Design the sequence.
């Protein structure tokens, strides 16, 4: 009889400078997670700092609120990243839907997410509130990486108004860009994607908030060189549309 499979080694993201032989206290949220899992001293875990490597580690001590580990050797990360960088520039959906978008986009291999405040946006963030939300979304992305096996965190860019982002994109982007458009004169997404994939450049997808991009924003995106594409006859939610575009790419490289 074959032996039962070993349970997976728990993976945790830590914002620490990892090195062989390092003894360090885990950040409080990670320490709480270790305690919730009821790990004991001597247990093997995997740490990653979001830069592309996994590190073996052993639990040394578990206190009431502190967990100390010893870091072992680094190992090359699993080949789970997409072979080209995909950026989603999204008009932020409201409520918890942006959390869901960040989580699922991370699982699907997104390289970067640019949250935007658009003309029709329900969720409008700026200042300290935007910084708190950004820190929260980075935590959501880190947790998604722990689950899906990625060792490289996606970039969560600071929230920008559409006009500021559009100006920066128009002046310096090196990515092949698409706008998910509800307007006229669009190309089917799968047709437009094929030559872009052959070009081997990074890809960028602009998608609007609830209600879509305004006509002025759609026109500005086209003027900046983004190719207008459609995902089909159904009107998708603000969080569904960019994930559909990303999922099609992820499936091609599965």
Sequence:
């Amino acid at each position: 009889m074959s032996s039962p499979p070993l349970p997976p080694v728990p993976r945790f993201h830590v914002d620490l400078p990892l090195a062989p032989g390092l003894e360090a206290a885990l950040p409080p949220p990670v320490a709480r997670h270790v305690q919730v899992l009821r790990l004991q001293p001597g247990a093997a875990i995997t740490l990653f700092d979001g830069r592309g490597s996994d590190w073996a580690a052993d639990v040394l001590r578990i206190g009431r609120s502190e967990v100390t580990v010893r870091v072992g050797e680094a190992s090359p990360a699993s080949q789970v990243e997409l072979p080209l960088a995909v950026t989603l520039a999204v008009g932020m959906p409201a409520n918890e839907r942006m959390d869901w978008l960040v989580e699922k986009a991370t699982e699907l291999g997104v390289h970067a997410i640019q949250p935007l405040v658009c003309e029709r946006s329900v969720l409008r963030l700026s200042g300290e509130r935007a910084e708190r939300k950004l820190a929260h979304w980075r935590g959501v992305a880190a947790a998604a990486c722990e689950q899906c096996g990625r060792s490289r965190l996606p970039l969560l860019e600071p929230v920008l108004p559409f006009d500021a982002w559009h100006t920066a994109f128009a002046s310096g982007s090196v990515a092949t860009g698409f706008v998910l458009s509800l307007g006229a004169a669009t190309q089917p997404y799968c047709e437009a994607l094929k030559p872009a994939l052959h070009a081997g450049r990074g890809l960028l997808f602009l998608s609007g908030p609830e209600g879509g991009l305004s006509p002025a924003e759609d026109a500005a995106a086209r003027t900046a060189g983004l190719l207008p594409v459609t995902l089909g006859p159904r009107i998708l939610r603000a969080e569904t549309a960019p994930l559909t575009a990303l999922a099609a790419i992820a499936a091609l490289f599965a």
